[in-house]
Amino acid sequence: MKPDQNGPKPSGASAVSGGSAVPGGSGAFAARLSVEQVEEGFALAPKFDAEGLIPCITTDAATGEVLMLGYMNGAALEKTIATGEAHYWSRSRQCLWRKGATSGLAQKVEEMRVDDDQDAIWLRVRVAGSGASCHVGYRSCFYRSVELGGQSGSLAGDSPGISSGISPGGPARLRLEESRKTFDPKAVYGDAPNPTQL
């Protein structure tokens, strides 16, 4: 059963037409009434997907570096607006989460933007502590690049002198773009379950 057919939804969202969702009765978001109102209006009328979520790109306010892609439900979006600290919906743990609650690497929101059709959020943040946003220990969750056709070079784990270009019939190769982790995930998270799912 799909969540928009009376199945479970992330807390704080209820379905309305077109896969859009707004928090139940909070009044924090405007109804989506017309294309003109959504694209040119001055009221936040976010479009959540069938799971009650909206994607959120988070970048460093000072450098513009992309730190992470997260998801928000209505409650996370409301809390972020109300507190000025980034809140997300954890798809792996199925719960609301304030970024940095465990690690201390809280994200203070300097600016929040919504895209033209209001189905994606962009946060510009300042990160406490080491400035990292990745649970693996790197500054950015995007700490690897994908080699494009014709590229080759040394990758983490490659033997010296062996080309790391795309192998015929094999998977595209990744290149490590951050030289070191900014914190030790084991020391910070201990035995907490890893949010990465196979």
Mean pLDDT: 83
Tell me the number of structural domains. 2
Write out the strand line-up for the largest beta sheet, numbering strands in chain order. 4-3-8-7
Basic shape = globular
The named CATH superfamily of the largest domain:
Phosphoribosyl-AMP cyclohydrolase
The secondary-structure element order is: EEHEEHEEEEEEH
- As for the CATH topology of the largest domain, it is Ubiquitin-like (UB roll)
Cα radius of gyration in angstroms:
19 Å
- How far apart the termini lie comes to 22 Å
Q: Give me the count of strands.
A: 10
Proportion in helices: 10-25%
Report the CATH architecture of the largest domain. Roll
Regarding CATH, which class of the largest domain?
Answer: Alpha Beta
Derived structural class? alpha+beta
Q: Figure out the total of helices.
A: 3
Per DSSP, what share of the residues sits in E-state strands of 2 or more residues? 15-25%
Largest sheet: 4 strands, mixed
Low-confidence stretches: 1-21, 159-164
